[in-house]
Task: inverse folding
């Protein structure tokens, strides 16, 4: 096993197949009998719980309160928001009946129980939350109103991929109402900064934060901000967005407040969301050909101890040694929470157990045999540096040294995963391309076999004139023909820009162009 | 305000109206524009988050892992489970289309996007989880399989009441598969005991745990166990249930495992759930005519400090004194978590703020004025003992004494709320009724004005022969005529029983008969 890899497909051979293999072998999730919906299994859900807890803490630190709004949205609410409909109307689950009946021995929707008005399973909750804001907000004293909900949402997708694109997914959606544009804009920037720092710190995923071009905005938004992460196949993954909605929803929904001077004034609103999609980002950022690699901050088990048992009299002492080790580790704290160490006592061969945890991405896997007990040592592998060449790198260390160092080690692994991903991101964003032909060549124009294209392409930073309307459409069509999208205009912009790569006009900003999930 | 009550309706005047007033005045939840669905507001959701965290800890302590299963269930899954359909078929939300289109300027379900098979919004997940169990379980080594999910579920209800009965609600549903009946039965009892102890300890709600009679079982269950709480109007609230499902679901869904001897054997399964309904139980157990009273363990804010400001130079010192007090309180721990103390700096008159927090049920409300600062005192009210007669009872104490005592005080309040409810429960379960006429009289037979009936009736413990089939139906009809139900046969049974109150046959157990939510 040590020379071969733990998965039967490598990233280089077939990245999409490798992704599916990791999801399966790390036991994260599976497709459900309902088309496009996933079952998130305990290991995958454990990661989500840690993501939730930490992101929730971050959101609340800005004075945001959690609420819960209905799963269903009346059709009329959706219809009211013209722009919003454009963006979502095509892909929603529609509830039309509220009862089943048995007819000719078959269970069917009861025609007598057809709803007068169909209900939509929420694709997002702007409309129904806006309606509540309109009731809740009376005076400037009620502002800003900052709320968030953790919920499931549904967007009917034809081609689904576990975590990345599923009909149902889990997310948080934050919504806020403000007295004026400046306050709402400042909040919008706070949310995207929260996502950026959460992604870098907790997920160990370096990102580029910036603004989406006009045609990639959230339906109804004035501005959409995004964090974009680079997967190991060079594609971009949009990992969190924050929207300044101006007064668009407020005017449709009559969200007004009485100002100090007594005038009735429209609120400015924002929304922002991050979803289970980021688990796909974790896989494609950190995974390797032996499976998942988890940043310790989101590893449901950070340290797994596998006793090597021989069916001899020595076994009980080995088990005890492992249990005592776990107890001491669990008494310590890492990332502000108790360490999550676990002894795997399952009745399964120890090599199998070890590889099981390696595939699942456990940061530190310890194997404890009779010799370790006798010498008061521990033998472990680091998931961030599993192999030296093809060989698995095991380290043996005095137990007390390991215990003294374990929390630091978890921090080191968190840092190392981030550093590896950052190095890849930095090395694979190229600038200096000023001609569209060079851009096309960089991304292998002509090759239209997306899935089979294993050449790593990275992202390009190019200057553009920030076109709008028909001009933007033309640019977008040219990019689309290369399976590319304009991901964002990074917040960090260069001092000087040349000509627009698309139009030759003077450029106004630099954007990132990439293939994307 | 001190002589009057904070709500404009008392429990005695009109209990259902009082309930609605508490939900509104404590800002817990509101009806949404979608019939039967509720919006859980920040204060209500904050309570739910604390309930979730503590119950989740309890569930996980039994080795249960959280997962997530799809919102939608294929119609065929529901149809497969005959008994299950009987119980749920009449009240489900049915998704029939996956797209909307604009027709004559109106948004309608797109006829071209009708689903081949309708999808049901889960009323509970036995069928879809059983299907996964059938895939996941291979050998005895995979058992027991213990999973849980936190989710929203939908049961179309015609008459809804916030928290108590809504079309959509939030809950946890645990599901487990076991190698044999004994193991599954032991687990079923562990789940109900978990609910019992959670209710008593965390919610401060004393309950009677027992078994549901046959006709009140979960559809498809062999046995259903319940915890029943007594509301202040004497009605019972079923607050958590645990089901031994035998091999009923396993045989429909082919959930089998290979035993050590190699035989393919059906699993025995269980399920158990507790929902946002318990928040209704908290309100109706602990609330009084001044609003909600929250057990400190589930109070989003346990201690609120209201500065009494006069618009003078003394104000900043008062604010600082309050902030310093909160910081010291928040440094302490209660119920295993940091104390949740908060200074209300809102620009609102202090009396209004104080009553706002009292109505919301905050266990300790402090009012700090210039005199308190000068004397290094605090002045506070205890929500569990707000008044002496009609007067609000304020206590002034040296700050250091209060700080030294605050955590104990929270524990005392938690205990006092439980003790008050326990005393009421004990005083209002009556035994010794052996004739049906006496039972009927006790519950005011003849009065069919349920809502207006303010006489407190409590519960009766009566002996019965545990009838089945037609005999049970007859008993149930007689109870129904009095708006009564057989709640459960308590686990704690008397040593001797007389004759069945319904049939005159020898009794086999004692049951609780009550009006119920």
Result:
């Amino acid at each position: 096993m040590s020379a071969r890899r733990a998965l039967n497909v490598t990233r280089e051979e077939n990245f999409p197949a490798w992704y599916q293999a990791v999801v399966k072998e790390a036991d994260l999730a599976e497709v459900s009998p309902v088309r496009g919906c996933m079952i998130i299994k305990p290991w995958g859900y454990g990661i989500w719980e840690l993501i939730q807890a930490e992101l929730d803490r971050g959101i609340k630190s800005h004075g945001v309160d959690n609420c819960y709004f209905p799963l269903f949205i009346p059709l009329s609410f959706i219809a009211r928001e013209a722009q919003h409909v454009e963006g979502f109307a095509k892909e929603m689950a529609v509830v039309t009946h509220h009862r089943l009946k048995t007819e000719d021995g078959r269970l069917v929707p009861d025609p007598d129980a057809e709803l007068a008005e169909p209900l939509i399973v929420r694709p997002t909750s702007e409309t129904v939350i806006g309606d509540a804001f309109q009731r809740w907000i009376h005076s400037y004293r009620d502002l800003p109103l900052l709320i968030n909900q953790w919920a499931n949402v549904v967007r009917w997708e034809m081609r689904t991929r576990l975590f990345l694109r599923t009909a149902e997914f889990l997310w948080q959606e934050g919504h806020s109402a403000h007295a004026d544009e400046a306050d709402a804009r400042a909040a919008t920037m706070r949310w995207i900064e929260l996502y950026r720092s959460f992604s870098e710190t907790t997920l160990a995923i370096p990102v580029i934060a910036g603004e989406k071009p006009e045609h990639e905005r959230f339906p109804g938004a004035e501005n959409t901000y995004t964090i974009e992460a680079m997967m190991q196949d060079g594609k971009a993954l949009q990992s969190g967005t924050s929207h300044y909605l101006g007064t668009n929803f407020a005017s449709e929904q009559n969200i007004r407040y009485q100002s100090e001077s007594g005038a009735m004034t429209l609120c400015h609103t924002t929304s922002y969301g991050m979803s289970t999609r980021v688990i796909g980002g974790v896989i494609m950022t950190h995974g390797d050909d032996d499976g998942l690699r988890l940043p310790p901050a989101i590893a449901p088990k950070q340290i797994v101890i596998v006793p090597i048992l021989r069916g001899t009299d020595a076994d009980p002492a080995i088990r005890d040694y492992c249990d005592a080790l776990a107890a001491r580790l669990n008494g310590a704290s890492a990332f502000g929470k108790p360490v999550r160490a676990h002894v795997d006592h399952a009745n399964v061969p120890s090599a199998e157990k070890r590889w099981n945890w390696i595939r699942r991405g456990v940061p530190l896997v310890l194997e404890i045999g009779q010799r370790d007990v006798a010498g008061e040592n521990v033998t472990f592998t680091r998931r961030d540096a599993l192999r030296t060449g093809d060989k698995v790198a095991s380290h043996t260390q005095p137990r007390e040294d390991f215990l003294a160092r374990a929390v630091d080690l978890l921090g080191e692994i968190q840092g190392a995963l981030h550093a590896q991903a950052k190095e890849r991101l930095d090395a694979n964003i190229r600038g200096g391309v000023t001609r569209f032909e060079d851009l096309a060549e960089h991304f292998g124009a002509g090759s239209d076999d997306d899935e089979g294209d294993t050449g790593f392409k990275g992202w390009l930073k190019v200057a553009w004139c920030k076109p709008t309307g028909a001009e933007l459409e033309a640019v977008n069509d040219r990019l689309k023909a290369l399976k590319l999208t304009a991901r964002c205009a990074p917040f960090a912009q260069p001092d000087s820009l040349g000509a627009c790569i698309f139009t030759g006009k003077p450029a106004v900003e630099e954007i990132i162009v990439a293939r994307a999930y």
Chain B is about 35% helix and 25% strand. The CA atoms of residues 65 and 147 of chain B lie 5 Å apart. The first helix of chain B runs from residue 15 to 25.
